[in-house]
From TrEMBL:
GO biological process, one term: L-asparagine biosynthetic process
Catalytic activity: L-aspartate + NH4(+) + ATP = L-asparagine + AMP + diphosphate + H(+)
Top enzyme category: ligase
Entry-linked Gene3D superfamilies: Bira Bifunctional Protein, Domain 2
Primary residence: cytoplasm
Domain of life: Bacteria
Locations listed in the record: Cytoplasm
Protein name: Aspartate--ammonia ligase
Species this chain originates from: Secundilactobacillus kimchicus JCM 15530
One term of GO molecular function: ATP binding
Entry similarity comment: Belongs to the class-II aminoacyl-tRNA synthetase family. AsnA subfamily.
């Protein structure tokens, strides 16, 4: 457990007012986000059959919560980590066309998460996916989409300021782009997360690109599953968060693998056995569209826009009693 207690923290909204603000932000953001990126809302599962290969493997070390169902035999069922793979199949199944996409309210359990001000075992995010052409699998497409998402967040800042002027946390006016190799070249003696803190503090909002593969040092910046993001065409959207004096990641996203990049990345990850799974066969046979997609943390957006000190102020979850007591003593009221 790691907890930051900011000095002289004073919530600008009561618990009840915060709950109202959460509803307003979530409903307003998803409508504007859907319009900006041409996405339609769809319903999505909370659990999947393990044998489909559709669950998100995250960094490859996290264990999904699993169970069996009475009418499904002994086949393991897994609570989703995210819907990174499921969405791409859903676009195919539901007949989405070029430049059309979907978003969904995704709820997940990540039981191996290290709990702190930003991280919870309960994950709530807008998972989204959009059809692009083979020719649009480029850095330019990725950056243009990031700018669209940033535009929505900036507009939400103004919307929240109008409704809750005393509570809004102001955002920078521009998003910058940097690669993980550029960060290592500049700060070789820092850890990857320290580099992200340093660049976020300097630029205020930055999209860190190319996550998953090895850098010149032979080390990874961070882990990424080898079978959904193309490691050369992905990244994380990060803000410098003054209330806690550190970076806050809002979104992880990327252009998805094609057959060649998936085979290459699975070989690097020593996970070529996955190639026989139904999802991976669809990629190899080009039976699903080329896409770009990602996840945007719902509670983290609320936290960012309201200047909260702990994600538990905008999300009902479970926390160690020690964390609850320390937060309460500091005026941080966990839901």
């Amino acid at each position: 457990m790691h907890l930051i207690i900011p000095e002289s923290y004073e919530p600008k909204l009561s618990v009840r007012e915060t709950q109202e603000a959460i509803r307003y932000i979530r409903e307003t953001f998803q409508d504007e986000f859907g319009q900006q990126l041409n996405l339609s809302r769809v319903s999505a599962p909370m659990f999947l059959e393990k044998k489909t290969g559709l669950n998100d493997n995250l960094n490859g070390v996290e264990t999904p919560v699993s169970f069996t169902m009475q009418d499904m035999g002994a086949e393991p069922i897994e609570i989703v980590h995210s819907l990174a793979k499921w969405k791409r199949v859903a676009l195919k199944r539901n007949g989405f066309k070029l430049h059309e996409g979907l978003y969904t309210n995704m709820n997940a359990i990540r039981k191996d998460e290290d709990l702190d001000n930003f991280h919870s075992a309960y994950v709530d995010q807008w998972d989204w996916e959009k059809v692009i052409s083979r020719e649009e699998r480029t850095i330019e497409t990725l950056q243009a989409t990031v700018k669209q998402i940033f535009k929505v967040l900036k507009h939400m800042e103004h919307e929240v300021w109008y409704k809750y002027p005393e509570a809004v946390h102001h955002l920078p006016d521009e998003v910058h782009f940097v690669t993980t190799q550029e960060l290592e070249d500049r700060w070789p003696d820092l850890t990857p997360m320290e580099r992200e803190d340093a660049i976020a503090k300097e630029l205020k909002c930055v999209f860190v690109m190319k996550i998953g593969g090895a850098l010149k040092s032979g080390k990874k910046h961070d882990g990424r599953a080898p079978d959904y993001d193309d490691w050369e065409l992905n990244g994380d959207l990060i803000f410098w968060y003054e209330p806690l004096n550190q970076k806050l990641e809002i979104s992880s996203m990327g252009i998805r693998v094609d057959a060649d990049s998936m085979k290459k990345q699975l070989k690097i990850a020593d996970a070529e056995d996955r190639l026989t799974l139904p999802y991976h066969q669809m990629i190899l046979n080009e039976e699903v569209p080329f896409t770009i997609g990602g996840g945007i943390g719902q509670s983290r957006v609320c936290m960012l826009l309201l200047g909260k000190a702990h994600v538990g102020e905008v999300q009902a979850a479970l926390w160690p009693q020690e964390m609850i007591d320390k937060c309460e003593a500091a005026g941080i009221h966990l839901l």
